[in-house]
Write a structure and sequence with these properties.
This protein is an alpha+beta fold. 33% of the residues lie in helices and 33% in strands. The protein is built from three helices and 23 strands. The strands form five sheets. The chain has a six-stranded antiparallel barrel.
């Protein structure tokens, strides 16, 4: 009875073994599937991160490219008028200072008074000079008397010497005293002449025909002689012809020839023009401003124009005197350490910085006389950070929009 029972137990064990193997295989397949899913998830995450990084990099690079507007240079080769500021002065103008000290006794002319050469403007009372003159005249009279007696004495001693009545030594002494007396007389005479001239300076006179433009003194005022001892007493200007000074840029210096005509416009006389003619130039370029000083003459016989006024000078220059030039907005200029530059865009959409030279400044526009070509694409309002070779994007004008020129 015991053995059959063991035989059944062994049979049951053999029947359970295939069931456990099947379960293990199923579990392995599930694990493999989960591994594949995890690998797919990891690959997908890596690809997503790479794509996002590439997209962010492309967007950053896209945003880093500066978008700009451009314009074409406007040719100015037909420009023939040069407008410059100038200062107008009287042909002759002289400040009048005192040559002798004293008190102003009276003045006879005021500002705006026409005067003639030699006309009395005022008088200075100088009692010290008058007293010195009287003393000098008395010294001269004494010297003349001494010289007269010394001369007579010397003549007598010459006669006595001819007869050997006196020694040669004594005769020479008398002749020497006569010569010394003559020298003293000449010195006294020169001193009298000097004081007479100082006394004559008590009368202040006009040096030339003109108009009194300033009077800086009054009756009783203490007057000191010299140019550095006080203000000028009077100022006289000859305004029948005026001199006009203007600084011409070096670019146009070659066109400044004697006889060149110009028209003048004054802000206080709108709508009117006056003729002027170039007389001469300084024949040298001032290194600080790179300009040539030019002098023009203006006829002012009617006295209509006033010295010291500001004036616009319009020169009529031959066409192309400064070569081909271009007109551009002032906001195209870049100020760098090595000078002015203009940023342009080449065919491959990259920046090219070009050094330029400007001519006239019109305020909102400037004249470019060197450094640009007519077909250049010039960047408007370029950022200061632009460098040569930088990538750039040119904005496309909207329909109907006109680029600034």
């Amino acid at each position: 009875m015991d053995q059959p029972i063991r035989s059944n137990e062994v049979g049951a064990g053999h029947a359970a073994a295939p069931s456990g193997t099947k379960a293990a295989r199923q579990l392995g397949r599930v694990g493999a599937a989960l591994g594949v899913v995890a690998l797919v998830i990891l690959v997908w995450a890596a690809l997503s991160a790479h794509y996002a990084s590439a997209k962010l990099k492309a967007a950053t690079e896209q945003q880093a490219v500066v978008t700009v507007a451009t314009t074409k240079p406007k040719a100015q080769s037909d420009l023939t008028e040069l407008i410059l500021p100038g200062n107008i002065q009287a042909n002759y103008e002289a400040p009048i200072y005192a040559r002798t000290s004293g008190y102003l006794k009276r003045w006879l002319v005021d500002i705006g008074t026409p005067v003639k050469a030699g006309q009395l403007l005022g008088e200075i009372e100088s009692p010290e000079v008058d007293s010195q003159l009287r003393q000098a005249q008395a010294d001269l009279a004494t010297a003349e008397a001494n010289q007269k007696i010394a001369g007579l004495t010397a003549e007598r001693w010459r006669n006595l010497r001819s007869s050997d009545s006196v020694s040669k030594q004594e005769a020479d002494e008398k002749i020497s005293l006569a010569a010394s007396g003559d020298a003293q007389m000449q010195a006294a005479r020169a001193n009298v002449q000097r004081l007479r001239q100082l006394s004559g300076f008590e009368k202040i006179v006009a040096p030339f025909d003109g108009v009194v433009t300033a009077r800086n003194t009054d009756v009783g005022q203490l007057i000191s002689a010299g140019i550095n001892t006080g203000p000028e007493l009077f100022r006289v200007a000859d305004m029948r012809r005026l001199r006009l000074y203007v600084r011409v840029p070096q670019t146009y210096a070659a066109a400044m020839k004697a006889g060149l005509a110009a028209e003048l416009q004054f802000p206080d006389r709108p709508g009117r023009t006056y003729a002027a003619r170039l007389e001469s130039t300084s024949s040298a370029i001032e290194s600080a401003s790179r300009t040539l000083l030019a002098q023009l003459s203006v006829d002012n016989q009617n006295g209509e124009l006033l010295p010291g006024a500001y004036v616009e000078v319009h020169f009529k220059l031959p066409a192309g005197v400064a070569g081909e030039s271009f007109k551009l907005p002032a906001n195209v200029l870049l100020f760098r350490g090595d000078g002015l530059h203009v940023a342009t865009v080449d065919a491959s959409q990259h920046v090219v910085l070009k050094p330029v030279t400007i001519g006239r400044d019109y305020g909102s526009d400037v004249e470019i006389i060197q450094g640009l070509d007519a077909d250049d694409n010039v960047i408007l309002s370029p950022p200061d950070s632009l460098v040569n070779g930088a990538g750039i994007r040119v904005a496309t004008p909207k329909p109907g929009q006109v680029t600034q020129s």
